[in-house]
Design goal:
The protein is an all-alpha fold. It is built from 13 helices and no strands. The chain has helices at about 1-25, 35-45, 55-65, 65-95, 110-135, 140-145, 150-180, 185-200, 205-220, 230-235, 245-265, 275-285, 290-300. The longest helix has about 30 residues, at about 150-180.
């Protein structure tokens, strides 16, 4: 199943990049209502409610390019669904090696990806209906406020929000537990946590780049092409937790001590042999005078 999961991760990254680029190109010429234009409308004499809304050009552009917007929404939804396939495989692989793994994490990826895909399509269709109804009015500020939101649009937005929350929870739970059992490296686990947070708290450009990059790295890991070799937990089939910082320090200290011992000769240093004079003194019987002392006594008598 690993090659299929790798293909799903690769497809998720490619579709996410393609969807982002497609939306950027499709909406690059879209007119935007500026705050300065609204202030100028307020400065004009007469009631503001009967004036034409400054958002009408943007609504007209959206209505004319609805096909491109729907395609972009489908691409991003398919990217979430493909990523959920890779996350589901990683969740089952983690559960086989972890004693305690939340069962809900097995279903969160697919539920989140499917909801994001369905909600994105419903939101695009609901937006088309809503914009069409807006353009059928007299296009004044009061007419836009009286129209209200489309139920289809609101339903699509709610589905996307729930799907995003489920997908974010899947990223966090799966990446954290997979890192604990040794299926993901520490760097991959930490980045996976950040990707999960960016799903619900998007940051411009960072959210669009980090998730595809993480999926590409996951695909490379699942294919067994990770630099330095794949983590041992993939080969042994059991949890292989990464050593803590204290354990890494102990391993480094032990390696340094071993190298120092090898440079010193690799054996115990023999004790130096005692000097001959010291040996003679140590072996002389107690109470017997040294021969040199007798010679000194004879010289004094003479």
């Amino acid at each position: 199943m690993r090659p299929r999961a790798a293909a799903a991760a690769l497809a998720g990254g490619v579709l996410a990049v393609a969807g982002g680029i497609f939306n950027s190109l499709a909406l690059r010429d879209a007119p935007r209502a500026l705050f300065v234009d609204s202030l100028q409308s307020l400065a004009q004499p007469g009631p503001i409610g009967s004036a034409q809304s400054t958002r009408i050009p943007a609504y007209e552009f959206f209505h004319d390019h609805i096909a491109a917007i729907v395609i972009g929404a489908i691409l991003l939804g398919l990217a979430s669904l493909a990523a959920s396939g890779a996350l589901t495989f990683l969740a089952y692989a983690t559960r086989a090696r972890a004693e305690r793994f939340p069962r809900i994490a097995l279903y969160l990826p697919f539920v989140g990806g499917a909801l994001v895909l369905v909600g994105s399509v419903i939101t695009a269709v609901g937006s088309l209906v809503y914009v069409g109804n807006l353009l059928d009015t007299n296009r004044t500020v009061d007419a836009l406020q009286d129209l209200g939101q489309s139920p289809v649009l609101v339903a699509g937005q709610i589905i996307v929000q729930f799907g995003g929350l489920a997908l974010a929870g899947a990223y966090v739970l799966v990446a954290l537990n997979a890192m604990r059992v040794g299926l993901l490296t520490r760097a991959m686990g930490v980045v996976g946590l950040v990707v999960g947070l960016l799903v619900v708290l998007p940051v411009a450009l960072l959210s669009q780049l980090l998730q595809p990059l993480w999926l590409f790295a996951l695909s490379w890991l699942l294919l067994g092409r990770w630099p330095g070799g794949e983590p041992p937990a993939w080969r042994t089939g059991r949890a292989e937790p990464w050593p803590s910082n204290a354990q890494l320090r102990e391993q480094r200290d032990a390696a340094r001590a071993k190298q120092a011992k090898q440079r010193g000769g690799g054996g115990d240093v023999a004790a130096p042999e005692p000097a001959p004079a010291a040996t003679a003194v140590a072996e002389r019987p107690a109470g017997k005078p040294h021969p040199s002392s007798k010679k000194r006594k004879r010289k004094r008598r003479d």
